[in-house]
Amino acid sequence: MSLHQLVTDGRIHPARIEEVVEKVKKQIEEEIIEIGKRTAIDLGIHGLHPELIRMVGRMKYRSSYGQNLLQHSREVANLCATMAAELGLNVKLAKRAGLLHDIGKVPDDSPEVPHAILGMQLAEKYKEKPEVCNAIGAHHDEIEMTTLISPIVQVCDAISGARPGARREVVEQYIKRLKDLEALALSYQGVEKTYAIQAGRELRVIVSSDKVTDKDAETLSFDISQRIQTEMTYPGQVKVTVIRETRAVNYAK
Q: What is the pLDDT of residue 7?
């Protein structure tokens, strides 16, 4: 809608603006429902409640660390289906849970409840099966998993979020995470240098050969990985490689 259509005689007419806003809101709402329906058809998911279809459509207008929520949810659904098929589990239920796992991020209101729990409550409200509800509620370990579909959804969510290129971080947060990784490893006795590489997905730890034995190196790698796991927040996983090197150097004169 062009500006001159909202302005006559040099004055802005609020009633006309309200009319246009209402029209656009209606168009967007129709598009949201159409996106939800098309997504369900594309994935072969049937019988979703109209409100869940609407929530799926709304995912198109949400993102997490730069990753589009609808694209992420479709990806998780397909990964869940593949993994469930490999394990001989119910492929349709796994795919359904994968698509719906983040619906708690897109309701009209935002109560102070973790999105996984809110998503589970919405799925229960709209009569999804218990396996699907549990997988949604448990995908961040806020409730106990009661079905094998639940860990599949959790793993596939992590794969989609952590794959290269999926998400972006604020530069300052990214640099801080790399520095924190390196500083954590440097706090151990016998560590000479540390390097966070592969965008923080691997930590290389160089140790002094005269202070750290081969057995110590193995223990050190485990201890550092456990501390990273308990003290830091990161996507995917971090590989900890401890390198112990001895060198024999002589000079011919």
A: 56
